[in-house]
Sequence to fold (171 residues):
Amino acid sequence: MEPVNAAIICCSATVHALAQAAAEGAEKAGANMRIRKVAELAPPDIDQATFGDLAWADVVLLGTPTRFGNPASQLRAFIDTTGPMWYRGGLAGTLLALGNVFYHGGGIIVPPGYTDPVQFQSGNPRGASRMVGDGPPSDVALEAARYQARRAVDTAAALKAGRAARSDPMP
Fold:
């Protein structure tokens, strides 16, 4: 079976270290990796995300700072522009690891839960995170991001293998 394609889409320099850690975890799980940013102030060493990145990916991990409990407007704006892909069913098989908005496109949310010891240390079953005011991400936060990416890639690989084994493949 072909490896899982994993796209990490982020929108801020504040989540860059977590995105890099998630990429390490996804690569460790055997995924082909892309890290992309939505238009804004993310580090210049990350290419801007496109529809092509979403179409390419078997699994998408999204990184965003929170804005009053919501994803940052830059990431929401990028997601809003993907309407034509949702309409065509282009994202129906994509695994997305952020929020209720993705149910509309048929995404499967893969939170880490408390399925690994690092999650008991991080204390966040919803996904890797950190407080910007606390300085750089801690080793625990980075390991939680790596674990979450491995879990998402492993889930995507299992679903991809199951889809390949079906005699009537779903879109």
In short: The first helix runs from residue 16 to 28.
